[in-house]
Amino acid sequence: MIINENLITLDLEAKDRGSAIIELSQLAFNDGKVTSVDDFVKSVFEREKTYTTGVGNGIAIPHGKSDAVKEAMIVFGKSVHGIEWDSLDGNPVEIIFLLGIPNKNVNGIHLKILSQLSRKLMDEKFVERLKKANDKSDILEALSDINIE
Amino acid sequence: MKIVAVTACPTGIAHTYMAAEALEKAAKQLGHKIKVETQGSIGIENKISKKEVDEADLVIFAADVAVKEESRFKDKPIYKVEAQKAIKNAKAVIEDALKILQK
Fold first, then answer.
1. What confidence tens digit (pLDDT) does each residue in A98-137 have?
2. Which of A58, B66, B77, B86 has its CA 20 to 30 A from that of A130?
3. Cβ contact (<8 Å) for A63 and B11?
4. Partner-chain contact A51 B64, CB within 8 Å
5. What is the ipTM of this complex?
């Protein structure tokens, strides 16, 4: 599975962008999705440097492509206090999708899911649903709506 | 107006698709026809044909990396912008793109 309950946190402890990425990457490591937090985080930070993944509307989608990723994954994090992300609209981030992609042997269906998720994030209703979710199952249910053509 | 657009970004997993979705929604709201080709990690999807280029009034590139097969569009007015601009305000991108036709 590209996401599961172990890859969701509804109460991020991190107060800044860097520690949020590390905290979410740690969940991926604990669930066996990445082999090294350091290596994966490095690829995510590299990507953040190009330009921010804070796409506005309280959403950030940090992502990295790395050998440390065993299979494509989505890690979801929600921050109660909001995290400064240098967002396009200047607002703090409430929901974070950390996406990980392996360097080799990428599964096409997984990529398709990630692309559909990105599209869905432009959908106001979908985003509201995620922001209001207060249970991990709410998040999984919302994400299960992503259909693959 | 008939618009064709291409979106692309460095990793090709997020901004490419968000920008495509944003442009499609904005074009619809503004009453224009649009076809958006995504050049992402999956490869090229929803590819714009020669015929569609010929029929288009305008081309938009919302891309942070070089657009593949750019020569397809060489005889058309092209408006180039960063992918994130389309995500932030796709309506403004389309409106600005249309302005190049008036020049």
1. 999 999 878 888 899 999 999 999 999 999 999 999 999 9
2. B86
3. yes
4. yes
5. 0.91
Mutation target among A112, A113, A122 for the B interface, most CBs of B within 10 A: A122
Rounded to the nearest angstrom, the minimum Cα separation between A133 and chain B is 22
> How far is residue B1 from each of residues A42, B32, B58, measured CA to CA in Å?
44, 5, 8
Give CA–CA dist A87/A58, Å, rounded.
Answer: 8
Catalytic residues of A: 63
Looking at beta carbons, which residues of chain A come within 8 Å of B15?
55, 118
Tell whether A112 is within 8 A of chain B (Cβ).
yes
Query: Rounded to whole angstroms, how far apart are CA atoms B42 and A33?
Result: 21
Per-residue pLDDT of chain B (103 residues; tens, 9 = 90+): 999 999 999 889 899 999 999 999 999 999 999 999 999 989 999 999 999 999 999 999 999 999 999 999 999 999 999 999 999 999 999 999 999 998 7
pTM of the full structure: 0.91
User: Hey, is the C-beta of A109 within 8 angstroms of any chain B C-beta?
Assistant: no
CATH superfamily of A5-144: Mannitol-specific EII; Chain A (3.40.930.10)
Q: How far apart are CA A138 and CA A140, in angstroms?
A: 6
Domain segments of chain B as ranges: 2-102
In a 13 Å sphere around the CA of B74, the CA atoms on its Cβ side amount to 5
Q: Is A105 helix (H, G, I), strand (E, B) or coil?
A: coil
